[in-house]
Design brief:
single chain; globular; 2-enoyl-CoA Hydratase, Chain A, domain 1; alpha/beta
């Protein structure tokens, strides 16, 4: 509007009031995970989830839920390097995926100096098997499954002997790791891997809960609370 002194009234430039940071965080949590308050886990334990397909050197299709190995490995490095972190808790619900990516994660978990516990929830299939056995102590819930089978490739024909030998060496790396990090014996593991009566149109074996413990692949049947208490016990022993 025009005043009597011929000056033009300037619009009010008072900044709009913004929502407090706390409110913004609650809204972001609500949009991201469906809850307003995101609980904070214990700061002395690093929790890592390995879910869906393990993504290695090749990017998984966008419609697949995947765990990228380059995201997991720095978290494991932090466990070893950070003096405030006392232990590692690995939660598994994976269909498997990239062999070298999965083995890389498994070797890192197995080589850290701090206590580690793994828990197989929905499934720990294929390369998820060595991931489950890589920790100091492993658990599986009663309804979870683990599939043991040979390394697969697209199609049924392996074209040249060199390719066949490469797959043999890759398979042996997985077998050696599982035997090194669990109590299952070689003959039993190989028999389960090449069983033809368990999976239709394929070879291998599906183990459910207690079966994985019976064969010595997993240490114990138990849920989250049991596994967490075991890790706390290992941390306490390690600090003495």
């Amino acid at each position: 509007m025009i005043r009597n002194d011929n000056s033009i009234e300037q619009p009010d430039k008072t900044p709009e009031k913004k929502l407090p940071n706390l409110t913004n965080n609650k809204l972001e949590n609500l949009k991201a995970i469906g809850v307003t308050n995101l609980p904070t886990p214990s700061e002395d334990i690093q929790f890592i989830s390995i879910i869906g397909q393990i993504e290695g050197h090749t990017v998984s299709p966008p419609q697949k839920k995947a765990t990228k190995y380059e995201h997991i490995m720095p978290l494991i490095v932090a466990v070893e390097q950070n003096p405030h972190i006392k232990g590692l808790f690995v939660m598994l619900n994976t269909v498997g995926g990239d062999v070298e990516g999965g083995l890389a994660i498994a070797e890192m978990i197995n080589s850290i100096s701090k206590p580690s516990v793994s828990l197989v929830l929905g499934g720990g299939h294929s390369i998820g098997v060595p991931l489950a056995t890589s920790s100091n102590y492993s658990y599986i819930v009663p309804t979870a499954t683990m599939t043991i089978h040979p390394i697969r490739m697209t199609g049924l024909v392996i074209g040249v002997p060199q390719t066949f030998r490469y797959f043999q060496k890759m398979q042996e790396r997985i077998v050696d790791f599982v035997l090194r990090t669990s109590t299952i014996d070689r003959n039993t593991f190989m028999r389960l891997m090449y069983d033809t009566d368990e999976i239709a149109n394929d070879v291998g074996t599906i183990l459910v809960g207690e079966e994985a413990v019976k064969y010595g692949l997993i240490n114990e049947v138990g849920g989250f609370n049991t596994a967490l208490n075991k890790l706390k016990s290992l941390i306490s022993e390690n600090s003495n």
